[in-house]
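Protein chain data
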Amino acid sequence: MANKDYYQILGVSKNASKEELKKAFRTLAHQHHPDKGGDAEKFKEINEAYGVLSDEKKKAQYDQFGSSDEGAGFGGGGNPFGQGGGFGGFDFSGFSQGGQGGSFEFDMGDLFGDMFGGGRQARAPRGSDIQVDLELPFKDAIFGIEHTFTLNKTSLCEHCGGSGAEKGSDLSQCSTCGGKGQVKEVKNTFLGQFESVATCPTCHGKGKVPKVKCPVCKGHGVHKKPTEIKVKIPAGIDAGQMVRMTGAGEAVEGGKAGDLYIRIQIKKHPVFKKEGLNLVIQKKVKLTDALLGASFDIETLDGMLTLKIPEGIQYGEVLLIKGKGVPYDGSKRGDILVTILFDTPKLSRNTQKIIEDLRKEGL
């Protein structure tokens, strides 16, 4: 038998810690497991390498009598385990949880639980998540709102309160699981037989079944129906952001409901745009108003306000209306930023003469 470099097989250094060895073994075992279409011989080799390197005594003997630099394993001269390649004679097909004679220190149920259906403990079923789009008026997105809408989804049965039993009817112990809510399953794998625990298919983990089933949900405790959803939209939310409502998704018999994700869409405002905590607006004025100054009434999200334009304002200059922007931190708010725009008008002959006289004066 050819010599083997167990460190090379696992892809670790000779100084690798137990956690590093275990992590490498997990990764490679998942990759090469025969039940997942992997190479059976490679999988056996990986187990063999980990079986040696994870045992302190065997690792010490391997390090003493073999050289990873030369690619040697237990075979060849000086092998304390006899001819034939040391651990190559192990029968890996018979390993079960805990190993043979306690030679393996790792827990096979822990390592391969996700391969064979959930490990030692049955996982309670979970309902599906739901995602919906919600379009809001611009003002509601700025100030926040509690919005109510109807969603057709699987929900807890109100008639029986989720018990699945008709009102006044008792629940009896499930005969399939004996009231435990879980049943044991034995699976044959490449590594031998594995015992796992699954949710009882009869009572769906409840341990009890109704003597008389609820006529609305047919004993399931959940059923599909139009459900009223109330969601609180925070102030200043942006388009594309999600609001998550835990447990408001699809309900499932004997398990936990999924979550509801609400993606926000916002209607465009005819005047304002949101930039961070500020509201942005453009105000177009006449050239004379820009030169001499003026006052204007402008409509904001809080109602009408008076905007004063100082004389001699420059094109594109921004005026600030403090504290009328996006709410944040309770009572605080951003600002409104007003960008002043104006056009250069066509001049009449009389106006043109006046401007020429001004130019002569150096203005």
The radius of gyration is 37 Å.
